Amino acid sequence: MMLGRYYEEFKIDRVTGESNLTQMYLQEGLEFIRRQTEAQRPFFLYWAADATHAPVYASKHFLGKSQRGRYGDAVMELDYSVGQILSWLRTLGIENNTFVFFTSDNGAALISAPHEGGSNGPFLCGKETTFEGGMREPAIAWWPGHIKEGTVNFQLANVMDLFTTSLALAGISPPGDRAIDGLDLTPVLLSPPHTIHNRPIFYYRGNELMAVRLGQYKAHYWTWSNSWEEFKSGINFCPGQEVSGVTTHDQKEHTMQPVIFHLGRDPGEKFPISVLTKEYHDVLSRISPVVEQHKKNLVPGIPQLNMCDLAVMNWAPAGCEKLGKCLKGPKSQPWKCDWPH
After folding, report:
1. Transmembrane region positions (predicted)?
2. pTM of the entire structure?
3. Residues contacting residue 11 through CB under 8 Å, at least 6 positions apart
């Protein structure tokens, strides 16, 4: 079941930043959990608040309450809402039978900073880049009685793993008629200090493989922040963080000699390892076969969401008939815009 709201049915006051949308999402989520619990039905709730996405907003009770302006207010309300959901699970007595995972889909959008954007701490750049500030997100798993509280695991993982992990927790095997990229994280979550050794992470931008991480090392095969045209117009994906030869405004290829960082020593990707060192060649000798194998095993797919073809967008979401708000999709024009990697 999917619950959603149409943008014209709620208001974001662009002057004050006030909106009740997060509270509306919260109440919908709590009510859904109650209904499923009372009916003794298992449930999956994807609770995706967007208050920290420009335009940033918060409800009246939270506006002006943080020390980080409107963005901080939105984060404070998000934190409160997650707390309410966890508290509700306890109240209903189902916390020991409910797996909760908190994460995000990208790092903070620095192009909206400082007034409507967050901070990625020591990590380089932000959303829309494949530097750590754009790709590294918080990840917190919660399951009382199953996941030991206060533990930290340095296992590399990505959001695609949640699909396979959720199936494993439900006792369901993943479909065998397609390639599944996500790995089952249950051994990592439930049996610390278990890890999935040498698991690579591939960083894509569009359909271009930009970088690969293996352990603490990350190799950039392409570098790019945003175009000179955007940059000169005042749009900056890496404000205050320009790194020569790394945060390039031209799309620079490094496939013959990748730019390599050790993220343990250099989480900000500011000091590339010299190509003249033994460390560089040792790392490259380990990453190169991983990249070759990955490219060899890739299976081309048809995009289910194509920002360059508006006809692919969801013009008639579930329930639109009852509201009389189903829209007719435009004619397909898949090449009408350019989406560079």
Report:
1. none
2. 0.88
3. 19
